[in-house]
Every structure is written in C-alpha cells, then in structure tokens.
Amino acid sequence: MNKLKLLNRYSAAITFLAFEFFALIAFSYSGSFVLFGSLSLALCVLLILFNIGEIKAKGLSNVALFFIPLFIFTLLTAVGNYNLFYVMNNNYKYFTWGETVFIILGLLPMAFNGYLLSIDRNFKLKTFIVVIFSALAVYVLINFVYNLINFGAFYPVFYKNFYLYYNGIKSEVAVNEMAYVLEGFKFIEVKMSHYVLYPLLLLSSSVMLLFTSPKKEKGYFFTFLAFTILAIFALTFIPSLLSLTGLGVIAVLVLIIYLGKTYVKTRKAFKIILIALVTLFLLGYLFYVIVVSTGISNSFTGFLKRLFVENRFSKLINPNLEGIFSSSKFLGFAGWEVNYWPYFELSYPTGFFIFDTFMTSGVIGALAIFIFIFLGFNSFKKYFHSHKDEFRLQATLLLFLIVFVGYSAFFNEVDYALYYRVVRPLYLTAPFSIMIFMFSYVICKSRADEVKVVEEKKEEVTNA
To answer: Phi-psi category of 323—alpha, beta or left, where left has phi over 0 and alpha has psi -120 to 50?
Structure first.
C-alpha cells in the first residue's frame, strides 16, 4: 500500500487519459459497447492504482450506499429474460456475450470513475465540460453536414411524405422522418428522433453563455457560442416537431436557471412549481402502470377508456405493461410462447424508456435505475451549495442530464436504424454511460461536502 501511494504523484497523467476517454465516448465514433466498457474498466483500475492515497483518506462508506441501485440494475439487466433471449436465440442474436458482461463491468466502473474523479485533485470539471461538448460538437457537425449534402437544408419540409426505394423496397418511414448519422465508421439512415438527440444535448451547453463574460473569458465564451449556434443550425435546418419543440423547451429551462440564479425571490416559486409538476407526473405514472399492468384498465369505459386504452400511445405501451408482475414478465421479457417452442410473438420496445425498462430489466431492475436517477437529481440540492465547482458548470451538468433523461423517457428508439438491424437499448449507448458518470460525480461530490461540513461542526463543538 505504501508503494502504491507513491503513484499519486503521477495521477495527473491518468486524469489526462480520463479526459481522452470521455472525448472518445462523447464523440461515439464506434458503436461498440464492449469497447466503451473495456475502456471504462481499464480507466477505473488505473484511477484506483494512482489515487490509492486519496481513496484511503476519503473512504468509501459515505458513497457506497448510492451504488447499490445501479448494481441491482446492471445485474438484473444482464441476466434478465430480455437480454438473454437476444444473446442465446440464434434467430434474434442482437446482443453478444461481451455486451452482456460489460453491462456490469462497464457501467459499474463508470460510476466508480465518477467517485474517483470527484476526489482527484487533478480533475477539473471545467476541462471535462469542454471535452465532452467539443467531442459532441464534432459528431453533430459531421451528421449535420452529411445530411445537407445528401438531402439539402429544410428537406423534412420539401420532401414531406416522400419515400426512398432500395431495390424496389419502399423505405420504412418517409424522408422527412429520417436522417443520416455516423454509426461506427459508416453513415446509416436512422429515425429522426435518434438524430435529434445529439444536437439537443449539445444545446444544453448554451447555459454557459449566461454566466461567462465575453471580455474576461473571450475564448471560452466564443467556444460555447459556437456550440450553441451549431446546435441551433442542426435543429432548425433539419426541422421536425421534435427538434423545434426540444429547442423551445431548452430555451425555457435556460431562462429558468438564469432567473433562479439572478433573482433569489423567483427560486421559491420555481421550487413549488417543480415539486407540483414532479408529484403530478409520478402519481400519474404510477397510476397508469398499476391500472394497465393489473388489467384494471380493461374495465374502463367512456373517457377513461379513451385515455388509458384506445389512444395511439396506450395501444403501443399497454401490451408490454400488461402482466409485468406475473412470473413470466417480472424479470423482463422479449416475447411469449404462442403455440409451442420455439415460436414466439415478439414484443418490441415502445420508445418510452420509462416503460421499456420493465421489459429490459424487469420490475426490480426498473425500480433500481429509477431510484438511482432520483438520487442523482436529488443530490443537486446539496451540490449547488458547494463552492468548489462553479455554478455555471453545475448548471451545465444539470441541464445535460435533464435533456438526456427527459428526452429518453419518451423518445428512446431502441431499434433506430433503417435498412440495418441495430437494436441498442439505452443502457448500451454512450450517452447513458456519460449520464452514469455525471450522476455518480454529483452524488459523490455532494456527499463529500456534506461529510466535510459535519466534521467541521464536530470540530467546532469539540474546540468550544
């Protein structure tokens, strides 16, 4: 242990490698989850070895509890019926054993990386923010330019209800509902909802502009101004209902953050509104899940039937929610037996992460990841009281997470590719790994500050 402590002097080099890793994963030039998981595990091992002194000094007891929900989620997802069906069934072999292993060995080390870098003196959140959004900007720029070359500006308007034909086969969706993105080392056609996600994430960096002086930090200001302009161009030159709505929502969120920081009196009003909206959403969500999963909704008539059974969203969601507490679906599911093995009627993800998680991870796994996300957002209350990280950096992390979680909750296309078979649940994507890191960083940072305050108070009482 004493010899390992000597490695602390070289921890700056490992921190630099961490920034390189996050640049790679944010750019996402390779869709290989095995690659991301391997690098996450390797980075975790290196950070442990080169920060053993800090780990011993800070300890793990104050943050270990927060990793339990994530461990449950990764374990139940990896061994759940959904994942194992697609790994073991040769007719639907969408996942590999490597991806299954790294659901645990990739995501858990990513969370632990959040803890390790939260106590790493060489880690600068300001640098991390620049690295993440710079890589994301390059990715958005490549996709944006490639779409302009192939379709032209405003093509969703000009080619609305037009279709492409390959070998006489009509495209699955109209041209205005598709776009090109870089997947691995080639461009593929994807559903518009998948393309829109990345410029929206990039646009979340716009909150930095409100708290950065163009005179004092000219280079920093114009860097984020460029990110914002690029994101707006990528959303408006390839317009869709999703992109324009997302742009408006982010503008409102940025305004709320600015008003909450600048005008103290507005904070209480925003807090009350936020609590009310979150409470209503959670109550409505729980009620919907319970009445559909237990079959109560089948007895509804009139307005309730139209609301819970007969609208286009419920027709998509309800078949997957029905019977999720039964033994056949409790641990996740990919299909159910129709006549006899091996004939299945497959049940595909709906695109709503808040509902599809019951399919991919089972009831307990879904509850576990929801708890982890709740703990992450809840930790921002204490995190914002910390003066170690600048408010603008804290706000950028918060907005990035709100955009990603909020968008994925309703528009997460698992099977997003057209003409290609790409089945990638949210937990096998690069943005989800970044989300895990950010939440872990915030949770650990807020807990560390809380422990420090308690220790300082104890010391004051002792001295008195």
So the answer is: left
Query: Each residue of 133-152: pLDDT tens digit?
Result: 999 999 999 999 999 999 99
Query: What confidence category does residue 42 fall into, taking pLDDT thresholds of 50, 70 and 90?
Result: very high
DSSP codes joined into one string, 348-396: ---S-HHHHHHHHHHHHHHHHHHHHHHHHHHTHHHHTT-SSS-HHHHHH
Cβ 63 vs Cβ 449: under 8 Å = no
As a whole number of angstroms, the distance between CA 179 and CA 139 comes to 14
CA 398/CA 400 separation, integer angstroms = 6
What pTM did the predictor assign?
Answer: 0.91
| Domain positions in the chain | 130-238
Give just the sign of the alpha carbon dihedral 413, 417, 419, 422. Answer: negative
Which residues 6+ apart lie within 8 Å of 51 measured at CB?
A: 8, 11, 14, 116, 119, 120
N-to-C CA span, the chain? 37
Distance CA(343)–CA(221), nearest Å, equals: 58
Task: Determine the Cα–Cα distance for residues 68 and 184; give it in Å rounded to an integer.
Answer: 33
Residues, the chain: 464
